[in-house]
Specification:
Layout (H helix, E strand, L loop, with lengths): L2 H16 L23 H15 L16 H12 L1
Helix pairs in contact: 1-2, 1-3
Length: 85
């Protein structure tokens, strides 16, 4: 899967979890997520992780999950890219 396809899929997953209006219009690697988007609460994070597993066909173990994954969009994207590698 290309980096652009991963980025597009992740944007869709985040939009579905928090709503399109909650995300910055120009979502990029430096865009802050956790703490910057009030709608990205613990339930939304769980939904995002579940959807990543379903959409990308990866397994995310509990010990892989930390707030660091959701610091920026780039952090989340790099995590998914690593899972797919």
């Amino acid at each position: 899967m290309s980096p652009l396809a991963i980025e597009s899929a992740l944007r869709g997953i985040l939009e579905s979890a928090v709503g399109k209006r909650a995300l910055p219009e120009s979502l990029n690697d430096a865009s802050e997520l956790l703490g910057a988007i009030p709608e990205l609460d613990s339930m939304a994070v769980l939904g995002v992780l579940t959807q990543i597993q379903d959409d990308f066909g990866v397994q995310i173990e509990d010990d892989e999950v930390s707030a660091d994954l959701f610091t920026t969009f780039g952090d989340l994207k790099r995590f998914v890219e690593a899972k797919l590698a």
